[in-house]
Amino acid sequence: MLKVINVTKEFHGNVVISNINLEVRDNDKVAIIGLHNSGKTVLMEILSGEIKPTQGKVLLDGKKVNNRKIAYAPQIPKFVPTMKVKEIMKYVTDNYDPFLDELGLDKEKRIRDLSLDEKKRLSIALSLPFSPKYLLFDDLSSISNITKDFIRKFNGAIILAHHNLKEVWDLIDKVVIISRGRITFNENKEELLYKIVKYVDEKGEHEIWEKTKEDYAEKILKERGVKFDVLGVTPDEVFLYFYARA
Ligand SMILES: Nc1ncnc2c1ncn2[C@@H]1O[C@H](COP(=O)(O)OP(=O)(O)OP(=O)(O)O)[C@@H](O)[C@H]1O
Is any atom of ligand 1 closer than 6 Å to the C-beta of 163? Predict the structure, then answer.
């Protein structure tokens, strides 16, 4: 289990993530969802052991994070542009072919000729010789089907940081929403599948959105004679409206 305990990160006195507590079990499939600048990357860097929190700690099976058990694709992986894929893989193993095949990478290609998606796959390939139990992926914008298939088949926990819940919905079971560096939602994804009832308040001044799993809100509004609409809201709009507002 990956356990995040009271984690806060500051840069030059600026708190960018605050008092985060989170548990990810060995087979959890989790999306960390948030708007631009909400703290997703900082949290992923802390989870992967790339950077240290200012306060709090992260434990993997009760011990300090061991990078080799975590496969981490950063938002923008950095490699020397003139090097070949195989030269980079040689830093971790001479027997790199099966790992490159698994991730659909060409060993002869130079870094400068790789797409961002391929560079992310190379980041992952570097940890495969160590049989990682956790796969962390920061930002799934324009990822290929090869990468998606790899994530689907990965035998372990996955944590995907992304800004658009709809785009990762099929890959995950749990959703953690982060807003201004704080967790505002942490549940199974089904908990985001409710109806939204929209109506205008009695004074006619404010539009109100209410979430409802049963027909309770609708029943009350009907009894009060208030006109309302039931909106078919997608998970992503739900996240924006209820959990990720500034
Ligand atoms: N090394 C750093 N030094 C100073 N501030 C930083 C540093 N890294 C991140 N921040 C700040 O922390 C906040 C959260 O940034 P982060 O990159 O985690 O957001 P994000 O949710 O990943 O955003 P995006 O969706 O744009 O990738 C931002 O205000 C950012 O400017």
Answer: yes
